[in-house]
Amino acid sequence: MATDSGSGLRVSKKHETWRTLHACALDLVDTRGYDDVSVEEIAAAARVSKSTLFNYFDSKEALLFDPGPGDRERWQKLADERPDGEPMWASVREIIRANIAHNAATLTVQRRILDAAPHLAQSTKAAGERFQQFVQEWVDARVRPDRVDPLCSALLVNTAFAVLRTAYLQWRPGDDAQRFLGLLDSAFAEIEAGVLDLPRSRTGVASDERH
């Protein structure tokens, strides 16, 4: 029991160090700009050595955009909250939305950083791909493979994440997280209303958002 307690404390401390480094990096880069902040300055702000920093992150880009520790457990909790019998599309939509709402403050800062340093966009892919892979695995485990074509399962998840990416691209730097969530809701509503039947009148939720 004591060993388990000690191990848990070590993991908790590592997670806290990761979060501190991540927060310091976001704050410094958001305030001063990506090129004007060094790894050494981030380490100093977090009160750790440069070598300790590199035990957690491979690069300055990783400090800003790497997936966080405990993400998978949190995603699993979101997935576990979906009720039995809920349509799979609705479950995936709500898991995505809940994850965005949880990360709202961080995403807002990252959006400003990317606007100022667009060459960093490639560095954001790891977190998104990891989350999408989790959702795909969860969907595949939840549906009966003898009743659902794998093509349909993949299409559902890929479509949902295309909605997420589209909403993100429409989210302007400087807008708050509520704007992003509004765009996400509107984008899902458009898909559910049959956006592929265009042209149609601009009377939907998303159409109202654009005015």
From TrEMBL:
Keywords associated with the record: DNA-binding, Transcription, Transcription regulation
Chain residues forming the annotated DNA-binding region: 38-57
Chain ranges of the HTH tetR-type domain: 15-75
PROSITE patterns: HTH_TETR_2
Domain of life: Bacteria
GO molecular function, one term: transcription cis-regulatory region binding
SUPFAM superfamilies assigned: Homeodomain-like (SSF46689)
Name of the featured protein: Transcriptional regulator
Source species of the chain: Rhodococcus wratislaviensis (Tsukamurella wratislaviensis)
